[in-house]
UniProtKB/TrEMBL annotation:
Gene3D superfamilies: 3.30.450.180, lambda repressor-like DNA-binding domains. This is Helix-turn-helix transcriptional regulator. Residues 34-81 form the HTH cro/C1-type domain. SMART domains: HTH_XRE. Residues 284-293 have a biased composition (Basic and acidic residues). PROSITE patterns: HTH_CROC1. CDD domains: HTH_XRE.
Amino acid sequence: MQRDQLADFLRRRRAAIGPAQAGIADGPRRRTSGLRREEVAMLAGMSVDYVVRLEQGRSSQPSTQLLGALARALRLSDDERDHLFHLAGHQPPPADGVARLARAGLLRMLDRLGDTPALVLSDLGEVLAQNWAAVLLTGDLTDFSGDRRYVVHRWFTDPAARAVCPPEEQEYHARQLVADLRAAAGRRSGDPTVAGLVHRLRAASADFRRLWAEHEVAVRRADRKTFVNPRVGRLLMDCETLVTPDHRQQLLVLTPADDEARERLELLRVLGVEEFPSRATGAPDHEGAEKSSPEGIAG
C-alpha cells in the first residue's frame, strides 16, 4: 500500500470534482471549487474521520468495497479507478468480476437527472449506482453482498423483495427477469459468473426452474411498471433503458406515467427532504449517508 501516493491522489481528485458533478447543491457561501471531505464521506457512505485519515496517509488498508465506494463518489474514470486500487495495494476488479463499478460516463448522466429516479445496473441485474430519487422510490439497492447483489436472485429467494411490485404484476416481472438473464447468459456463454448464478437459482427456487425451462429471451428496454412504495403507495412509472455498446451496463430511467404518479413522486421527494435534509440539500451529515431499508426491485 502506497499511503502517501494514495493520500495525494485522493486529495487531488476531491479538489478536481465540483459539487454539481457529484449531484450536490452548490451553496452561495462555498469557498472551494472541489468537494469537501464531509461531502465525499456522505457520497461514499463512510465517516469523515476515515476520509481525513486516508487523505493524511494515516489509515489502515482500505477494503475493495470501500475503494469502490470512493471511486463512485469521486466519479473516477476506469483508469483512475484502477490506479486507486493499485495505490491501496489491491488488484483492480476485473471487467466482469464480483466488484463491478458503474462507468464514469453513466454516473455523470445519473447525476444530471436530478429528481428523476435512475439506476445503473450490470447486465446481470446488480445495481451499481442510484441517484437519491431512486433511493427514495425503491430503497438502497447497492448495499447487498454475495448473490443478493442480483435483483433476480433476491426476487426468487426472498419474498420481501417482491413487496414493491403489486401481486397482479409479479408473474410478469418474474418472467422479465428470467428472460433478461437468459439473454445475458447467451451473450456471455461459458462465463462462470453467469453459470454459477443460474445453477444456484435453479437449486434454490422452483419458480425459477419453471421459468428457466421455458427458455424465453428478452432484453430489457422500454416498459411500464407499478412500484409500491410504503410511504406514498402505488406509482405507475415508465421505464426507459439505455444500454452501453457492449451490453454490460445499463442506465434505467424511471419517469411518472400519469399525474397521480407525478404527484406521489413529488410527495416522496418532500418526505425525503424532511427526513434526510443534509442529503437533499448537499450539506452532509458528518457520519456519512444513511441507508434506506426497503429491498426494492429494479428493471
